[in-house]
Amino acid sequence: MTAFDLQTVRRELHQIPELGFKEEKTQRYLLEKIREMATDRVDIKTWRTGILVHVSGTNPSKRIGFRTDIDGLPILEDTGFDFSSTHPGKMHACGHDFHMTIALAALSRLIAQPVKDNVLFIFQPAEEGPGGAKPMIESKEFLDWKPDTIFALHIAPNLSVGKVSSKPGLLFANTSELFIDFKGLGGHAAYPHLTKDMTVAASNFVVQLQQIVSRGLNPLDGSVITIGKMESGFVQNAIAETARLEGTIRTTEASSILLVKEKLEKLIKGFEIAYDCEINVDYGSNYYQVVNDGKYVELFQESLAGSDIEYVQASAAMTGEDFGDMLKVIPGFMFWLGVDSPYGLHHAKLAPNEAALSVGAEAVERFIRSFD
Ligand SMILES: CC(=O)N[C@@H](CCC[C@H](N)C(=O)O)C(=O)O
């Protein structure tokens, strides 16, 4: 694949973002590209909207896995690109279009010039939610080709093109989604005493929630609770009968997630009494922390020697990744790829620099070839 092809593929994928387990067009697009480059060394399986591509090595002693996520986000794109999303309200705002393109490029190079070991390319659905990694690695399709080591990358908007970054140990946090529904009693805006106002209850709840982090947890353990969406009411002069909060809990200690949930449920009981309402909580999907195996991070760093790619030591981040569920059972690592975007991940104007595509493909290829 030439540099021009990388850009074309990325832009074509960018135009068709789909949400978790709905990646049908994406799967068709990827299958077409994979079949175009396949030789008799290549075996392909699908799993739900995901794909597994096995490239047989020349003299294998193990299997190396590279995983890319393939889903988009429910975000209305505001980049102004002439290759913007053609799916209204959906966007590749987390770089999965980059990740997929890099996986295709590395795959094409490894097919053209096979390595000693077997290589498995994993095109995994639903990273943004509800989580495709766990069910995928439990599937027969995956277990038939279970890799001995596995790695993945994620674009890093705040890192320059030409740089990659990782670290041994904790890289990403434990996460739990958070959906909270409030049910009170609506009514006329002029008669608050005859209602149970869920806008007021939910607003206070958002504020109180932050005290779980600041007063309920050990300050030396990292944690964050973010409410990203709040809904209540229909009109300016009526009191809202219902409200909904949607957010996420992030912690650097796996046990702290449970502690947050315990404290949150106590808070809910208190609010039900104080506001005379009913509150239901749903934790959606939960991802295990991304913990890198130091041995593979070191091998990755060594594999870049003699290239123009600069390795930078990373700090742990509160981002989440269901790749953590893969690393829990298969040793390996994840790294950040510098893409130098003025806007961050999950922003409607995210604009990663496409020069990073070839850097990513080279880094992936180098690591796999380093076992030869
Ligand atoms: C790298 C990245 O941005 N990952 C997402 C993963 C989402 C997990 C889940 N939907 C949640 O919000 O808890 C992230 O938001 O960190």
UniProtKB/TrEMBL annotation:
Binding site for Mn(2+): 94, 96, 128, 154, 346
CDD domains: M20_Acy1_YkuR-like
Occurrences of domain Peptidase M20 dimerisation (ranges): 180-269
Cofactor binding, note field: The Mn(2+) ion enhances activity.
Family annotation (Gene3D superfamilies): 3.30.70.360, Zn peptidases
Keywords, in A-Z order: Hydrolase, Manganese, Metal-binding
Domain of life: Bacteria
Biological process annotations from GO: diaminopimelate biosynthetic process
Cofactor entry: Mn(2+)
MF-aspect GO terms: metal ion binding; N-acetyldiaminopimelate deacetylase activity
Protein name in UniProt: N-acetyldiaminopimelate deacetylase
Species of origin: Oceanobacillus sojae
